[in-house]
Each structure stands twice: as structure tokens, then as C-alpha cells.
């Protein structure tokens, strides 16, 4: 089984990102299993934890979880034209200690969403920049920007047919990368 971790970078209960991720998870083919990886519990990164203060158990658990993944799908909103702080914190936590990044070489894909028309363009590209530095190959085409997301979800949190079709193609490309 190929294990794909799904990291939802919005911590809000029932966020649009979580709803999109819930719709995407079942689109992976047979032979793939998805696992939601939580990031909200991680203490803010402090490099002193790698020294005198000792590594928090949450860091070790998170690093071990990511290490077991074959690939990672990030589903993110945009905060102030960038990624949420919780996501940047998680990326930093799992990239250390130096030379032991658990992100290294893991295929990745990004879906950004927003109620606005720009669809998280800024967060998508800022995340791509970080993932490039972490040596994570990222799906290049199609790019997944889900604008006006609130208009694409029904009252039960299900995406409309056209959006699901687009995301199925996106997942298919991600599977090719993996």
C-alpha cells in the first residue's frame, strides 16, 4: 500500500480546507491509503529544543508519522498572501535536526482554496518555494487553485461534480509523480 499523508493547514473545525480534503481523500486509486496528519498540536518551533531543552514528544511523534508516508498532499487556505503559521511550523519541525529532514524526496501536491477569486494563489506559491528547498518534488500541472470554494460546496460539504472531476485529474497526476 502506498500511504499518502494529507495535511490540512487550517486549524479551524470544518474549515473549507478540511472539507476539500475530505472530498479528495477517496479519489486515490486502489493500492493507496490516505491518512490525515494533524499539525495543530505542535509546539512552536524553537531550535533550543534540539539542544538543552530536549525534543518535545510531539516533534518526535510528528517526524515519525511523516517518515512513514510515501507522499504528502497539502490542502491550504491563504493567510495574508502566504501559508498559515501552523503549516510553516510543521514544515520546520520535520525538517530538523539538520541533515535528517523527513520531508526529503517525498513527492508532494498542493491544493489551495479560498472564498475569494484568487484561490490561495499566494499560499500555493509560497508553499512551493518551501517544498523546493525541502527537496520535495511537487505536481506541476495541473495546479490546483479552488476559488470561491464556498459556492462549490453543498450544505453537506460535498464539492460539485465539475470540481470533483478536476480534482480527480489532479490526483491522477499526483499518483503518476508518486
Automatic annotation (TrEMBL):
Domain NADPH-dependent FMN reductase-like: 2-150
Superkingdom classification of source: Bacteria
GO cellular component assignments: cytosol
Record SUPFAM superfamilies: Flavoproteins
Entry GO MF terms: FMN binding; oxidoreductase activity
Transmembrane parts of this sequence: none
Annotated InterPro entries: Flavoprotein-like_sf (IPR029039), FMN_Rdtase-like_dom (IPR005025), NAD(P)H-dep_reductase (IPR050712)
Family, similarity comment: Belongs to the azoreductase type 2 family.
Protein name: NAD(P)H-dependent oxidoreductase
Organism placement in taxonomy: Bacteria, Bacillati, Bacillota, Bacilli, Bacillales
Amino acid at each position: 500500500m502506498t500511504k499518502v499523508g494529507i495535511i490540512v493547514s487550517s486549524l479551524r473545525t470544518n474549515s473549507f480546507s478540511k472539507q476539500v480534503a475530505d472530498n479528495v481523500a477517496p479519489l486515490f486509486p486502489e493500492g493507496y491509503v490516505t491518512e490525515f496528519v494533524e499539525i495543530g498540536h505542535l509546539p512552536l518551533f524553537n531550535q533550543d529544543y534540539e539542544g538543552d531543552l530536549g525534543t518535545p514528544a510531539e516533534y518526535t511523534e510528528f517526524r515519525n508519522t511523516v517518515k512513514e508516508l510515501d507522499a504528502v498532499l497539502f490542502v491550504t487556505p491563504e493567510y495574508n498572501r502566504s501559508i498559515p503559521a501552523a503549516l510553516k511550523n510543521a514544515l520546520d519541525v520535520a525538517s530538523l535536526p539538520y541533515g535528517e529532514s523527513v520531508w526529503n524526496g517525498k513527492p508532494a501536491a498542493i491544493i489551495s482554496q479560498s472564498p475569494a477569486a484568487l484561490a490561495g494563489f499566494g499560499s500555493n506559491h509560497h508553499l512551493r518555494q518551501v517544498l523546493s528547498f525541502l527537496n520535495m518534488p511537487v505536481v506541476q500541472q495541473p495546479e490546483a487553485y479552488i476559488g470561491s470554494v464556498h459556492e462549490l460546496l453543498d450544505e453537506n460539504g460535498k464539492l460539485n461534480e465539475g470540481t470533483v472531476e478536476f480534482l480527480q485529474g489532479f490526483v491522477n497526476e499526483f499518483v503518476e509523480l508518486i
